[in-house]
Specification:
alpha+beta, 11-stranded mixed sheet, 3-stranded mixed sheet, 4 helices, 14 strands, 16% helix, DUF1365, DUF1365 domain-containing protein
């Protein structure tokens, strides 16, 4: 089968889709809301921008992507991720690196999770780095890899070591699945993506979450659609986190105090 990376043009994408979240116990709580995010082919882009009047790189605009929001905030993004992968023994992720994250909106951004999809030169997915952040300003990386190519939709696991929600203890494990599908629009190859993250504690499945979207070229029309259809989206992400926390507190879901963050910044 021809790898997706060999048929999807390595060009920046603005993706429109849905965020879904379901808590199974002790009080059931589910919500979903429309969202958008970017997928950026970092090697193909280099230091280039977006050729779009309303979307900028490393400067203020309606929507923007700032390199310092990702990686270590100092090194070029590809240099940083390549060094991290080498330090973890992944030496064959020499193909495209797709970064999936929310953009800045009027200068503000909060990414609960960003994904670095690291491919081999033949287009096969080799590893995924999940950059997880909480509202306390802390951050942790989960490196997902299995020693070779990762199949489309394959389940990957990681032990939970980082505090995200005060209504979940730092125990148990995550189950990840990432799916991509190609479609053609006006002769152009675009993609749809789905990222599923399910969390199991000691009693079994507790949370089911997903982020999905359909990609489109970054253009002034697409940016205007995103900005005016979903006003102040990144501010809304933080507001929704606190609103859902209030709902769980009202329902008397057990509360867990925040522990000290893990000393190791990358876990597998």
């Amino acid at each position: 089968m021809q790898p997706l990376d060999s048929v999807i043009e390595a060009a920046p994408q603005l993706c429109f889709g849905q965020v879904r979240h379901k808590r199974l116990r002790p009080a059931r709580n589910a919500f979903e809301y429309p969202a958008y995010y970017v997928r950026l082919p970092l090697r193909a882009m280099g230091r280039g921008g977006f050729d779009c009047a309303l979307f900028s790189r490393n400067r203020f605009n309606l929507l923007a992507f700032h390199d310092r929001d990702h990686g270590d905030g100092e090194r070029p993004l590809c240099d940083w991720i390549d060094a991290l992968l080498r330090a973890e023994g992944v030496t064959d992720a020499d193909g495209e690196i797709w970064l999936q994250a929310m953009p800045r909106v009027l200068g503000f951004v909060f990414n609960p999770v960003s994904f670095w999809f690291c491919h081999r030169r033949d287009g096969a997915l080799r590893a995924v780095l999940c950059d997880v952040r909480n509202t306390f300003g802390e951050r942790h990386f989960y490196l997902l890899e299995q020693g070779g190519a990762i199949g489309n939709g394959a389940e990957l696991g990681a032990r939970k070591v980082f505090h995200v929600s005060p209504f979940c203890d730092v125990t148990g494990s995550y189950r990840f699945r990432f799916m991509r599908a190609m479609r053609r629009v006006d002769g152009r190859a675009l993609e749809s993506t789905l990222a599923c993250i399910d969390y199991d504690d000691g009693a079994g499945p507790l949370l089911e979450t997903s982020v999905s979207g359909a990609g489109a070229p970054i253009s002034s029309g697409a940016v205007a659609r995103a900005f005016f259809s979903f006003p102040l989206m990144t501010f809304g992400v933080v507001a929704r986190i606190h609103l859902q926390a209030l709902r769980l507190w009202i329902r008397r879901v057990p509360f867990f105090s925040k522990p000290a963050p893990p000393q190791q910044k990358v876990t597998r």
